[in-house]
Amino acid sequence: MPKQTTDVDRLVGLRITALRKARGLSQTALGTAVGVTFQQVQKYEKGQNRVGAGRLREIARLLEVPVSAFFEDDDAGGTQSDVFGFLSAQGAIELLRAYALIDNDQLRRDALAIVRTISKMGKLAPTEPDPVAE
Fold first, then answer.
1. How far apart are the C-alpha atoms of 40 and 43, rounded to whole Å?
2. Would you give the end-to-end CA distance of the chain in angstroms?
3. Tens digits of per-residue pLDDT, 18-36?
């Protein structure tokens, strides 16, 4: 009977995806670098196939992270889990890349202030459509 993948396998896959995207690598590029097909990388990322220890070590080296980055952290604040949750949000990596390209410190602070303001507005926005506005 084949071994079943576990929640840990799925967690590792999600983190491979987030870290790969953060580095701007395609599944093909990552697969080529570690000696597997992009289809195999897809299976790793979806948690359908387990990543062997040696291959995970090689992926960590290529993504410039410790192997422990692929597993749940033990810190009480859950900071690492929060970061990976954030990175999986649609557009998060693109937003970070664009932000990192801003060279001017004042413009960077302004961009952050704008995003914070929009975030606050989103929390205050009504969940039901306003019939007067329609």
1. 5
2. 59
3. 888 888 899 999 999 999 9
